[in-house]
Amino acid sequence: MTLAFVFPGQGAQAIGMGKALAEAYPAANAVFAEVDEALGEKLSSLIWEGDIETLTLTQNAQPALMATSMAAMRALETEGVLVTRASFVAGHSLGEYSALAASGALSIADTARLLRTRGKAMQSAVPVGEGAMAAILGLGLDAVREVVEEAAQGEVCQAANDNDPTQVVVSGAKAAVERAAEIAKEKGAKRAVMLPVSAPFHCALMQPAADVMAEALSNVEIKTPAVPLVANVRAEAVTDPDLIRQLLIEQVTGSVRWRESVQYMVAQGVTNVWEIGAGKALSGIVRKIDRSIACTAVGTPEDVQKAVQTDE
User: Fold this and answer.
1) Nearest to 285 by CA among 87, 95, 47
2) Which of 81, 87, 213, 235 has its CA 20 to 30 A from that of 253?
3) For the whole model, what pTM was predicted?
4) Would you call 93 a catalytic residue per the annotation?
């Protein structure tokens, strides 16, 4: 089988995630300790024993999800499955940072600090209540692009996440996104759901956050990844560290081209996808894009054992 490792984004967080991995694998436990040290606080305590509202804050959820993904990665490595077993790595939004950490392009400590900075910058880029996001279900990307163009009326309104053939998320000014939701329903969308998010991610309103990340990324070493990264904003494989740095900046305001990214990997021969970290949301999305792909979620010690067995 030709394998890709994919890494989840915000929304997958849950209290207790990664704890069983940390208890079963010293290398996984060491990841959480490294993240705690990098951030100068016990993020692991929040992940394992805190409250979901605090964990869900963007500045906490982003490094927490990365830590959980890297714990799963270290558990796989302990069992003999290295990142180079995959032909590609990819991640949904913040998951792109997890993918880069897994492939050795970024250190875990740098990734944790970058994601803490990214979370704070994204949260503060737009005053609470001024931006919004909505999931448009049942319309494809081209149709949603027409919707956001009609809805904008001089305000920011963009297709933010092209998740699968049946789901595109729009982002922008609150009134414009609300207009887009209504227009989408008029144009035949099955549903248009306002999302419970704290900021309008992946649109032009995030430019202040992109500026912050440009500065933060300029001070971090990025190595050539051991496995090519399928980048969110390009939907194709990249390995050049300088290009990766630029695409991480563009990603803050750019669209997450997840549907095209999966299609790209399939076109390169990928038949199996392992979702590394918390939850199974990406596996469900991947199946909607291409039902021929075998998906495996790897987030617990039991998952690790099953994955290793299927790889033998």
Assistant:
1) 95
2) 87
3) 0.96
4) yes
- Measured CA to CA, the distance from residue 182 to residue 200 in angstroms comes to 18
* HEC profile of the chain: CCEEEEECCCCCCCCCCCHHHHHHCHHHHHHHHHHHHHHCCCHHHHHHHCCHHHHHCHHHHHHHHHHHHHHHHHHHHHCCCCHHHCCEEEECCCHHHHHHHHCCCCCHHHHHHHHHHHHHHHHHCCCCCCEEEEEEECCCHHHHHHHHHHHHCCCCEEEEEEEECCEEEEEEEHHHHHHHHHHHHHCCCCEEEECCCCCCCCCHHHHHHHHHHHHHHHCCCCCCCCCCEECCCCCCEECCHHHHHHHHHHHHHCCECHHHHHHHHHHCCCCEEEEECCCCHHHHHHHHHCCCCEEEEECCHHHHHHHHHHHC
How many Å apart are CA 149 and CA 222, to the nearest integer?
37
Indicate the residue type of 308.
V
In this predicted structure, the answer to whether residue 312 has a pLDDT above a threshold of 90 is no
Active site residue 202: yes
Tokens of 258: 């997840």
Q: Helix (H, G, I), strand (E, B), or coil: what is residue 227? A: coil
Over pLDDT 90: what percentage of the chain?
96
Residues 68-120 have pLDDT tens digits of 999 999 999 999 999 999 999 999 999 999 999 999 999 999 999 999 999 99
Residues 64, 188: Cα–Cα separation, whole Å: 38
Distance CA 250, CA 260 (A): 17
- Tell me which of 202, 255, 261, 283 is the catalytic residue: 202
Q: Is 197 helix (H, G, I), strand (E, B) or coil?
A: coil
C-alpha span between 81 and 83 (Å, rounded):
7
Sorted by sequence, the CB contacts under 8 Å of residue 285 that are 6+ apart come out as: 163, 164, 167, 258, 262
| Active-site option among 93, 98, 103, 283 | 93
